[in-house]
Design goal:
Length: about 425
């Protein structure tokens, strides 16, 4: 059985693991929230930046851009390269309403035409500003694929003669990542530090709860032992009263009846046979009472030996017609408490076999190993029949009590259906 110090350390380790798991979950959620907030912040910044760029650099777009005038294209290109393009901006495009790209810092796109989407058409017609992730699979974005993830922001601008065009700026995805990282690094020390501080503050409480649980467990074990001791004392009192009273009286009656039957038989009386039959019934009753006494209170296991005591338990099933076998080393010697627990387990198992199982055979085996002793009681009866021995009906809590006693000593008790039929009770305890 593990020591209290080891169990206390295990519980505190569980608390530490749970606290660490909670911290990791909060960190993961914080990272996700930072990413979402960072994305929103980056999109908002991109929209504001695009509005400023459109107002300052695209305030006067020459009419020649509409006809592809090289001078007009060169003028716009000079403004874009000097005032618009920067590390976070990967591409700039100016569109006509029919989908023709009138200008781009990527010269190969100038003059090409691609259909504008519904959102672009709506912004071009009614105004406003929109931002959305770039679809790099579109043909108009063929030269941006090597850039990777991008955010495109577009809004309407006008030429000198008030012809509306669509001004589109492509921002690198790094801007979104950088914004998330800034937010995370700003709040991470507060979040992680607060969680660690909370975990440290709760550590004394966890320690107190563990000690309280240990005290409750110790009290439970003391109550369990008290119940067992009280039961043993009561069994001993009942057995003593029966042995010294009723059994002795009935034994005397049987002797008296035998003597009376002998006198009557010598006198030639016909009543001798009836008296002799009464003596036989009395002796049978005495034998039954003595078997009952053994069940109520076991013999001294230290004197008779565990194997002999277990064999004595099989007398009851055998008297009821069951085939009963025992496989155990007659020289087995174990600590007194261990022998008592094994005896009680076998006694309870046999009582259930006789009372409930409708079995024709029961086998007991006691197997010793270097560290443990295993008792098995197997019958060929009707099995558990869907019942649960851990939740017994009122008055049938013997197995549950034995399981608690076994657990107290670091052992285990299991009751399962047999491979073919019946029930197999297995008790394993430390030597």
């Amino acid at each position: 059985m593990s020591s209290p110090g080891i169990r206390r350390g295990r519980l505190l380790a569980i608390y530490a693991v749970a606290a660490l798991a909670a911290i990791l979950v909060v960190i993961a959620l914080s990272l996700w929230a930072s990413q979402q907030v960072g994305t929103q912040e980056a999109v908002s910044d991109a929209r504001s930046t695009t509005q400023v760029l459109a107002a300052t650099t695209m305030a006067e777009i020459p009419n020649g851009l509409l006809t592809g005038d090289p001078a007009a294209i060169a003028a716009i290109d000079a403004v874009v390269r000097s005032s618009v393009l920067r590390p976070d901006i990967a591409r700039v495009k100016i569109w006509r309403g029919d989908g023709t790209i009138l200008y781009s810092d990527e010269q190969r796109l100038i003059g090409t035409a691609y259909p504008l989407g519904a959102e672009e058409q709506q912004v071009l017609q009614y105004g406003g500003i929109e931002a959305e992730p770039s679809d790099l699979t579109k043909p108009e974005n063929q030269y941006e694929q090597e850039v990777g993830r991008m955010l495109e922001v577009y809004l309407p601008v006008a030429t000198e003669d008030r012809t509306r065009l669509l001004f589109e700026v492509y921002y690198r995805g790094d801007a979104l990542t950088d914004a998330s990282r800034r937010i995370w690094t700003r709040f991470a020390p507060i979040i992680i530090g607060g969680l660690l501080l909370l975990a440290l503050l709760e550590l004394p409480l966890a320690w107190w709860l563990v000690n309280r649980a240990k005290r409750d467990e110790a009290e439970k074990q003391e109550l369990l032992q008290s119940a067992v001791d009280a039961s043993e004392a009561e069994r001993h009192r009942i057995a003593s009263d029966l042995h010294d009273g009723v059994v002795q009286d009935l034994t005397g009656v049987s002797y008296a009846l035998v003597a009376t039957a002998g006198r009557l038989r010598a006198e030639g009386s016909g009543a001798a046979e009836s008296v002799d039959e009464a003596a036989t019934h009395t002796r049978t009753a005495v034998s039954a009472l003595r078997s009952l006494l053994i069940e109520i209170y076991p013999p001294n296991l230290r004197d008779a030996g565990l194997a002999a005591a277990l064999d004595g338990l099989l007398a009851g099933p055998r008297s009821r017609g069951l085939t009963a076998t025992l496989a155990a080393d007659p020289d087995t010697r174990l600590p007194e408490e261990t022998e008592a627990l094994i005896y009680r387990a076998a006694q309870e198992a046999l009582r259930n076999v006789v009372t409930h199982s409708q079995a024709t055979r029961v086998d007991i085996a006691l197997v010793e190993s270097e560290r443990t002793v295993t008792l098995t009681v197997a019958d060929d009866g009707r099995g558990l029949a869907g019942g649960d021995w851990r939740a017994p009906a009122s008055g049938h809590a013997g197995l549950r009590l034995l399981a608690d006693l076994a657990a107290r000593d670091g052992g285990s008790l299991t009751v399962d259906d047999g491979t073919l039929s019946g029930v197999v009770l297995t008790l394993e305890v430390a030597r």
